[in-house]
Write a structure and sequence with these properties.
Length: 213
């Protein structure tokens, strides 16, 4: 299968973004699938233009976008993207949308069609802390997840797509006291198993990853 996996450039006060640092370290030779890696800008709408161009170029069967979620302790596979931009900080072009819809003609939300629980199961099985997340935020990560699933819903329903958030890496966490982090090699290993599960599972599995609030 053909896979497109993307990370993001650094944003805010960070000099690195672990999402792309991990994506570009994925060992292509160990996978039986064809994997293309790319970096997206942390800019509303421009990120989607770049992503759509990559999809048109590579014609993938699976698209996994990866972003940074500083403060989270696990790799978190996102369940849903919502149709709103509500930025706490400006993007890398200075845009600061507040309560703006992403696609006026789109649905309120789109769910990932990746086998998210199977992916979490396989990643946890090898010792990489992973869980399902029910919010991708309202910044550029959610923007990209929503825009990806809108594209799939409208144009390419045969593509499987979704989003994974990764924690800070230790070198970043020193600037954020008491913040969680994960070793970059573990993030890379988790993403490699996520790719394999996304390609191999034709249907998701039924296991509990729900929350009580």
């Amino acid at each position: 299968m053909k896979v497109l996996i993307t990370g993001f450039e650094p944003f805010g006060n960070d000099e690195v973004n672990p999402s792309y640092e991990a994506v570009k370290k994925i060992n292509l030779s160990q996978s039986k699938h064809s994997i293309n890696q790319a970096c997206l800008p942390v800019v509303f709408h421009q990120a989607l233009k770049v992503l759509y161009d990559l999809i048109e170029k590579h014609q993938p069967d699976v698209v996994i976008c990866v972003g940074q979620a500083g403060g989270r302790t696990h790799l978190t596979i996102e369940r849903v993207g919502i149709n709103v931009d509500d930025a706490r900080i400006p993007d890398n072009a200075g845009n600061l949308p507040v309560d703006q819809v992403i696609v006026p003609s789109g649905s309120d939300a789109y769910f990932s069609n990746l086998p998210i629980k199977a992916m979490a199961f396989e990643m946890n099985k090898i010792g990489i802390p992973t869980t399902i997340s029910n919010t991708a935020g309202t910044y550029v990560c959610n923007h990209v997840l929503y825009g990806l699933m809108y594209y799939i819903h409208e144009k390419s329903p045969n593509i499987k797509g979704g989003f994974i958030h990764v924690p800070y890496i230790p070198s970043q966490a020193t600037a954020y006291p008491n913040s969680a982090s994960m070793d970059l090699d573990n993030i890379v290993r988790g993403l490699e198993f996520a790719i394999e599960a996304a390609c191999e599972y034709q249907e998701d599995i039924k296991i509990s990853h729900g929350t009580t609030c």
